[in-house]
Write a structure and sequence with these properties.
Layout (H helix, E strand, L loop, with lengths): L2 H7 L9 H17 L15 H15 L6 H24 L6 H5 L10 H13 L3 H19 L6 H13 L3 H27 L2 H21 L6 H12 L4 H11 L1
Helix pairs in contact: 2-3, 2-4, 3-4, 3-6, 4-6, 4-7, 4-8, 7-9, 8-9, 9-11, 10-11
Protein name: Cullin N-terminal domain-containing protein
GO molecular function: ubiquitin protein ligase binding
GO biological process, one term: ubiquitin-dependent protein catabolic process
Length: 257
């Protein structure tokens, strides 16, 4: 049979009258099972919208927003767990998408342009986690506090920092909510440290300390900060530790001559 004859006499699938209603019923059930972490045989379905997802995300984050603890690591760990669960669930929902709209393609109709599921999931997570400005501020303060501890030689869970900073990046708030404040904190940290070390160190020891700090900032970006931050970060360290003290360094050098 020729391709022309096949196309002429083959009946292509058509959309049932109750297609949308039945599809949404199955999708709603599947999403509920995913968020409740129940095992289920999930059909390949298309999430026509995320109303049901939002209901579960809002409920999940409600308790987290109300969580009160002086332990910053405990708070960040709870947020990390919630974020990892959210990512896994959205990944599973994403995998069961795809074939429900295939009848539209068979009929030659264009597939509706829908927002990317991942992007919508991130928007919902951000909306409900940060609906209170104090929550976002508390999280950022805890993150920056951990960085300060690590700079001061204390042990911190760098993998936790890395995952949460990647969360900020994925949610599209890394630059506006965290990076700017982080660079300000860095500038203040090294401004104070530069003055302190210049008062009690000779030039060789001071320059060795500066070299160590610059290397640490580079490694910091490798371990948990976003790579886009490195140029500004190293530049601030150089300015506060070297540029601001160049006169004092030269004075000490000339005093030896």
């Amino acid at each position: 049979m020729s391709i022309y004859a096949f196309c002429l006499y083959t009946a292509f699938p058509t959309i049932p009258e109750n297609f949308e209603e039945e599809t949404w019923t199955e999708v709603k059930s599947a999403i509920s099972k995913i968020f409740l972490k129940k095992e289920a045989a999930l059909h390949s379905l298309d999430c026509l919208n995320l109303i049901e997802c939002e209901r579960h995300i809002a409920a999940e984050l409600e308790s987290l927003v109300q969580y009160q603890t002086p332990d910053s690591v405990a708070l960040l760990s709870c947020i990390d767990t919630c974020w990892q669960d959210h990512s896994e669930r959205m990944s599973l929902i994403n995998r069961i998408m795809g074939s429900a709209l295939s009848p539209f393609r068979f009929e030659g109709k264009p597939t509706p342009k829908l927002p990317k599921l991942w992007d919508m999931g991130f928007q919902l997570f951000r909306k409900h986690l940060f609906r209170s400005p104090t929550v976002e501020s508390d999280i950022v303060t805890c993150l920056l506090g951990m960085v300060d501890k690590e700079r001061s030689g204390e042990d911190v869970v760098k993998t936790l920092l890395s995952r949460l900073l990647k969360m900020f990046k994925a949610l599209g708030i890394y630059s506006e909510s965290l990076e700017t404040l982080y660079l300000e904190w860095t500038s203040e940290f090294y401004a104070a440290e530069g003055v302190k070390y210049m008062q009690h160190s000779d030039v060789p020891d001071y320059l060795k300390h500066v070299e160590t700090r610059l290397r640490e900032e580079h490694e910091r970006c490798l371990h948990y900060m976003d790579a886009s931050t490195e140029k500004s970060l190293v530049g601030i360290a150089e300015k506060q530790l070297l540029d601001c003290h160049i006169s004092a360094i030269l004075d000490k050098v000339f005093s030896w001559l």
